[in-house]
């Protein structure tokens, strides 16, 4: 059985280069190409590749955002122009990468590593999960949350999020008009979101720009009333942080 491979890169020349490098190895078969993350999502669903060569910096949907939306990602070889900081992140999580521009020899080493993973039946899902928990380049982080809602992909700007609430292994993301469920921990969101979000309770992160007022709920117990009309519990440590951050 040949290793079904999908090439994902917004540059046609980059896809052609990979196509030329890979065709000399009879163990691999290129089953398709995609020029952006949305097209890639469709092709992955249709073709069920064993391997994807994935560019990170793409329009519409980045490579990392695409992986977040895949419940069972295939083996991934990243192609990237990122610097050493990012390379360390890939290596730490045992995820293979090709640093652009890459040579034929480096490409062949990547193919060999893929074969070894397949032979060893390595579950790459955990590798990808760990990488997404610590993105390769924090100062190039996006200002949105990407969610797959059925067949629809939602992109929610941070500024539209009123608050977040833990829900088991998931997090509810609230806006003034809707709410969305995403499989991610609150700790991961704390590291991802800007300083305008405060952890006011074990179960809640709040966008301070949506706070309307702080209300006494019971003796020594408080709630936040948000502009959306939602009410959010505030813990003792959350109350202290609110006072220190907002000068209350």
Kindly report the average pLDDT value.
Answer: 89
**Number of extended strands:** 15
Number of helices: 8
Strand content: 25-35%
Helical fraction: 25-40%
Strand order of the largest sheet: 2-1-3-4-5
What is the structural class? alpha/beta
How far apart the termini lie comes to 66 Å
Cα Rg: 21 Å
Multimer state: single chain
Order of helices and strands: EHEHEHEHEHHEEEEEHEEEEEH
> Uncertain spans, ≥5 residues at pLDDT below 50?
none
Biggest sheet layout: 5 strands, parallel
Principal-axis shape equals elongated
Tell me what you see in this structure.
With 248 residues, the chain is of the alpha/beta class. It contains 8 helices and 15 strands. Strands 2-1-3-4-5 form a 5-stranded parallel beta sheet, sandwiched between helices. Strands 10-9-8-12-11 form a 5-stranded antiparallel beta sheet. It has a 3-stranded antiparallel beta sheet with strand order 13-14-15. The termini are far apart. The model has no long low-confidence stretch (mean pLDDT 89).
């Amino acid at each position: 059985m040949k290793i079904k491979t999908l090439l994902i890169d917004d540059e046609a020349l980059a896809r052609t280069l990979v196509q030329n490098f890979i065709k000399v190895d009879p163990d691999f078969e290129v089953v398709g190409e995609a020029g952006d993350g949305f097209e890639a999502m469709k092709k992955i669903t249709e073709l069920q590749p064993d391997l994807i060569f994935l560019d990170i910096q793409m329009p519409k949907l980045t490579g990392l955002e695409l992986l977040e939306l895949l419940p069972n990602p295939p083996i991934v070889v990243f192609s990237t122009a990122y610097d050493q900081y990012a390379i360390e992140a890939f290596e730490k999580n045992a995820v293979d990468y090709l640093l652009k521009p890459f040579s034929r020899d480096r490409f062949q080493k990547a193919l060999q590593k893929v074969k070894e993973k397949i032979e060893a039946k390595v579950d790459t899902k955990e590798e990808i999960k760990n990488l997404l928990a610590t993105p390769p380049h924090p100062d190039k982080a996006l200002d949105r949350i990407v969610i797959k809602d059925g067949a629809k992909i939602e992109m929610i700007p941070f500024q539209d999020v009123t608050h977040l609430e833990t829900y088991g292994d998931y997090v509810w993301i609230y806006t003034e008009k809707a709410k969305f469920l995403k499989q991610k921990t609150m700790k991961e969101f704390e590291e991802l979101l800007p300083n305008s979000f405060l952890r006011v309770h074990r179960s809640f992160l709040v966008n301070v720009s949506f706070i309307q007022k702080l209300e006494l709920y019971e003796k020594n117990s408080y709630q936040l009333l948000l502009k959306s009309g939602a009410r959010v519990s505030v813990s003792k440590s959350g109350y202290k942080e609110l006072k220190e951050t907002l000068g209350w």
